[in-house]
């Protein structure tokens, strides 16, 4: 024992093996772990554990490739999961398919055709029938940077979807259509929300945001080969002078520190070539008023530069859409209708065309020619299927009232009584008679506002509602709907109104208010022909308008004539004040006096004034009751479908 520290052993009880000491140490370790851990509370179900493609999505970041990343062909993939909200969902599914077919153009300039895994032409109605009960559908836009070199994109899309089926572990039910009528050829793909066993198809976020884009890039690179130095240089050169957000701007955003870009900072870490590109991009942004050079060689980005650049890009797209709609080559560019500006006038004009403003979400725009000849681009926001005015219809555009929904006022009232919080349980306590689906509609409204960044939700599912909630909800509603009120003055063109034996929009137009160019000139000529027709028929009064009593008489005759042309629906029932009918809303019927809704039941049908909200329930049973000046209608046993 020499040279070692002495110690005195402490003996325990006979047959004691030290178990108590082990238990004490385990207890101490458990208590320490609890102190170090933080309670996360109740978590919200995300579906990540059961989503398909999660492994493939994460693996895409580490997947080996024979080429460096900068050599890979670039592909933009946009994704939107469209949910079948009550009433509107199935109708929106149908509308999206029809929009992408109507807007689609193949390489030969022909109309867009749906295609799929095994056929170059597919009947969209069959896909609609299979999707009728789906809770959601996945929409993709796939846009290779070098799409023009691919030729027919069908085989590329089929290869991508075959790879997606392997990654997701299920057969997919999908259709696609190519669009070659823009500067960037792209493909729309719609995937049903069911897997091959009929279960809900839940795709992992990683795969949607990264995995499918990496797969598309690899497939296009295999077809065309890696990008050459000249191709890379040309693509970067385009980014330098683009009037929109580019990849160079994303680099600028990363390099910026409180709006400043300094030489010794992040810029020094870039290659000489990248520094030159960044410098040239900053010079271009300075010319646009979005950046400024400082005396010490640094740059400052103006406040809100990113949002302003995005706005400039959108306005440029809209001006090009106006030019494409008219195809006159007269150099007139047109204007963008902005309802947020003060003193924005109401505009009466004819519809030249409509198109997709945001293709994944059914946001549409109108191109109008006003009575004074001015050309306008008008954003409609998310538009109900079937509610877009057709070509040559006469419409009046004005700023919409900025107001929150009735449901927003209910949410604000409940939150005010509960310390700024809203939840399903708080709503039930506030209104014990409320139905579960009614409260769910409020939750869905808040989820939409949460995704837009207007409200927050905690882990217990409670929403934080600020004092300015109603103002935020009004702004959200304005952005969603485009902030524009569209009143259709006539669903018929001015030429079709001339000899119509019915009251028409031109009967109330003042000849002196019409100018001598564009749509105003066409309307003036049509108005002269219309009044000559009315005079021949003996319907023209001394004041140049319809004689007293003729309007109601002609309207009744037109309605009866329209009913006589509807076959196979039984007898026509004209609803008088106080009368009601329950039946299926089938479709709209356009007359000179306005648009009507065709409602049918077993042995009879009726025509009632149409409203845009009815398009939510096309094909569904509704109840209609006539009243003085209009109609009241509802779906099923609910009180109505007002806002």
Short description:
By secondary structure, this protein is an alpha+beta fold.
Gross geometry = globular
Count of separate DSSP helical elements = 18
Q: Mind telling me the C-alpha Rg?
A: 32 Å
- The CATH class name of the largest domain reads Alpha Beta
Q: Which consecutive residue ranges, at least 5 long each, have pLDDT under 50?
A: 38-47, 637-643
The assigned structural class equals alpha+beta
Task: Give a short account of the largest sheet.
Answer: 6 strands, mixed
Lateral strand order in the biggest sheet: 8-11-10-9-12-16
Strand content: 15-25%
Region (Disordered): 1-24
Pfam families: DUF3363
InterPro entries: DUF3363 (IPR021795)
Protein name: Conjugal transfer protein TraI
What does this structure look like?
It is built from 18 helices and 22 strands. The protein has 643 residues and is an alpha+beta fold. The protein has six domains: 54-224, BirA Bifunctional Protein, domain 2 (2-Layer Sandwich), CATH 3.30.930; 230-303, Arc Repressor Mutant, subunit A (Orthogonal Bundle), CATH 1.10.10; 321-399, no CATH class; 406-481, Arc Repressor Mutant, subunit A (Orthogonal Bundle), CATH 1.10.10; 492-548, no CATH class; 552-635, no CATH class. A six-stranded mixed sheet has the order 8-11-10-9-12-16. Helix 3 (88-103) packs antiparallel against helix 4, helix 6 (154-168) crosses helix 7 (205-224) and helix 8 runs parallel beside helix 10. The relative contact order is 0.07. The model is unreliable at 38-47 and 637-643 (pLDDT under 50). It comes from Parvularcula bermudensis (strain ATCC BAA-594 / HTCC2503 / KCTC 12087). This is Conjugal transfer protein TraI. Pfam families: DUF3363. Residues 1-24 are annotated as: Disordered.
């Amino acid at each position: 024992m020499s040279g070692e520290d002495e110690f005195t052993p402490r003996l325990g009880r006979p047959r004691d093996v030290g178990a108590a000491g082990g238990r004490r140490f385990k207890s101490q370790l458990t208590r320490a772990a609890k102190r170090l851990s933080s309670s996360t509370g109740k978590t919200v179900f995300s579906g990540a554990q059961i989503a398909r493609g999660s492994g493939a999505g994460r693996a895409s970041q580490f997947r080996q490739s024979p080429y460096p990343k900068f050599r890979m062909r670039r592909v933009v993939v946009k994704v939107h999961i469209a949910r079948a909200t009550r009433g509107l969902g199935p109708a929106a599914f149908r509308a999206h398919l029809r929009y992408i077919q109507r807007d689609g153009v193949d390489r030969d300039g022909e109309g867009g055709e749906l295609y799929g895994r095994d056929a170059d032409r597919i009947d969209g109605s069959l896909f609609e029938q299979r999707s009728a009960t789906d809770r959601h559908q996945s929409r993709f836009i796939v846009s290779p940077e070098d799409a023009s070199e691919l030729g027919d994109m069908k085989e590329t899309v089929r290869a991508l979807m075959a790879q997606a089926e392997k990654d997701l572990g299920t057969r997919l039910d999908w259709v696609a259509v190519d669009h070659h009528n823009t500067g960037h050829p792209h493909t729309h793909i719609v995937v049903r929300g069911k897997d091959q066993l009929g279960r809900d198809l839940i795709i992992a976020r990683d795969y949607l945001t990264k995995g499918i884009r990496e797969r598309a890039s690899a497939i296009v690179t295999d077809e065309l080969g890696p990008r050459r130095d000249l191709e890379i240089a040309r693509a970067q050169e385009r980014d330098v002078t683009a009037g929109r957000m580019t990849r160079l701007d994303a680099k600028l955003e990363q390099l910026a520190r409180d709006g400043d870009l300094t030489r010794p900072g992040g810029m020094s870490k870039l290659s000489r070539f990248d520094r030159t590109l960044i410098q040239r991009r900053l010079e271009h942004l300075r010319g646009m008023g979005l950046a400024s050079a400082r005396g010490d060689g640094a740059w400052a980005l103006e406040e809100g530069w990113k949002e302003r650049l995005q706005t400039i890009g959108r306005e440029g797209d809209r001006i090009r859409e106006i030019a494409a709609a008219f195809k006159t080559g007269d150099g007139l560019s047109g204007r963008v209708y902005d309802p947020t500006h003060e003193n924005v006038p109401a505009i009466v004009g004819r519809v030249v065309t409509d198109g997709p403003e945001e293709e994944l979400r059914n946001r549409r725009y109108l191109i109008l020619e006003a009575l004074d000849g001015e050309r306008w681009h008008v954003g409609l926001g998310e538009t109900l299927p079937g509610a877009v005015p057709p070509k040559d219809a006469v419409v009046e555009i004005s700023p919409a009232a900025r107001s929150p929904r009735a449901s927003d006022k209910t949410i604000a009232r409940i939150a005010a009584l509960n310390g700024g919080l809203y939840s399903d349980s708080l709503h039930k306590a506030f209104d014990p008679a409320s139905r579960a689906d009614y409260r769910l509609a409020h939750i869905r409204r808040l989820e939409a506002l949460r995704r837009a960044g207007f409200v927050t939700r905690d882990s217990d599912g409670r929403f934080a509602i600020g004092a300015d909630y109603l103002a935020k909800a009004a702004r959200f509603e304005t952005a969603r709907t485009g902030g524009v009120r569209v009143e259709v003055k006539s669903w018929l063109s001015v030429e079709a109104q001339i000899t119509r034996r019915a009251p028409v929009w031109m009967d109330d137009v003042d000849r002196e208010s019409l100018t001598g160019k564009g749509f105003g000139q066409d309307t003036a000529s049509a108005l002269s022909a219309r009044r000559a027709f009315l005079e021949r028929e003996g319907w023209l009064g001394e004041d140049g308008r319809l004689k007293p009593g003729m309007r109601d008489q002609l309207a009744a005759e037109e309605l009866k004539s329209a009913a006589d042309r509807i076959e196979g629906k039984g007898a026509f029932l004209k609803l008088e004040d106080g009368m009601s009918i329950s039946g299926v809303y089938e479709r709209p019927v356009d007359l000179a006096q306005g648009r009507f809704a065709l409602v049918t039941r077993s042995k009879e049908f009726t025509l009632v004034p149409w409203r845009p909200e009815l398009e939510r329930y096309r094909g569904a049973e509704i109840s209609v009751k006539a009243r003085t000046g209009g109609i009241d209608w509802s779906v099923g046993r609910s009180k109505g479908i007002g806002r």
